[in-house]
Each structure stands twice: as C-alpha cells, then as structure tokens.
Specification:
The protein has 151 residues and is mainly β. It contains one helix and seven strands. The two termini are 33 Å apart.
C-alpha cells in the first residue's frame, strides 16, 4: 500500500499511518461479528458477539492507536474432550483490530449475555500552535540546523 505516502509530496511523515492501515487490512476476517454505534456525539460503543467466551478468555489492548481484542479459550485439562455430532457454534480463537483516531480513548468494557461492549470517548484534540523562528543562514555554517527537542 505504498501508494498512499510515497507518491504524494503533501503526506510527509505518514509512513506509520500507512503501516497501521496495512495491519488493519490484513485483519479483515468476518469473525466475530461486531457493531459500532454512536451513543452521543462524543461516545462510541463497539459490540462484539463473543458467545461462549468468558471474561478470562478475552483480552483488550490499545497498541499504537490500534484497539486489539483477542479471544482464546483457556484450556481446561479436567474436562474431557466432547464428541460432537454437529458443531455449529464457533469456538475458535480470534483477533479483531480497530484503528483509533487521535483523541479516542477506551473508557470501559463489559461482557453481557455473550456480547462484549467496549465504550469509547472521543475528545477533541488540542490545537497546537507553534511559532517557528526564521534565522539567517551564515556563510560559514553549511551544516544542518540543530533541532531542539522538548520533552
């Protein structure tokens, strides 16, 4: 997907966004099904159908602006293997990813009747204005300008 940033002179420094979109595109499986609803202008809810999964079988992480939900059944060695005549309920592990915009934070997650609800809050990002000082280039300094980093 290198066509987004490599050919556009106005997309400087967006390589990480391109990598994030690539990761999300690779995760385009349809299992488990999910809904995304807007509760109010600043709140979203993702609901994922996770029937058969307990709280301890699910993990929710935010990594590099990406919400990752994983489900994997804990192996219980005490329970003997069942012999199914027909198995229509999926019990496989999954990973579902969602890209979060700047200012979107996970505020709550709860499991209710086989549905995992993840509540998100969308805050307006701060507008940052920074004045850039213009300096004269001296004849004896042909090296790169020094950039001060403030942390």
């Amino acid at each position: 997907m290198a066509f987004l940033t490599s050919n556009n002179p106005f997309m400087l420094g967006f390589d990480s966004l391109e990598r994030m979109l690539d990761r999300a595109a690779k995760n385009s499986e349809n299992y488990p099904p999910y809904n995304i609803e807007q509760i109010d202008p600043s709140h979203l809810r993702i609901t994922i159908a996770v029937a058969g999964f307990a709280e301890e079988d699910l993990t929710i992480e935010v990594e590099d602006k990406q919400l990752i939900v994983r489900g994997q059944h804990a192996e219980d060695e005490k329970t003997p293997e069942h012999q199914y005549l027909y198995r229509g309920i999926a019990a496989r592990q999954f990973q579902r990813s969602f890209i979060l915009a700047d200012g979107v934070e996970v505020i709550d997650a709860h499991l209710d009747n086989g549905l995992l609800h993840i509540d998100l809050e969308q805050n307006e990002p701060e507008t940052k204005i920074r004045q850039i000082k213009i300096s004269k280039k001296s004849e004896k300094t042909s090296e790169k300008p020094k950039v001060e980093k403030k942390f």
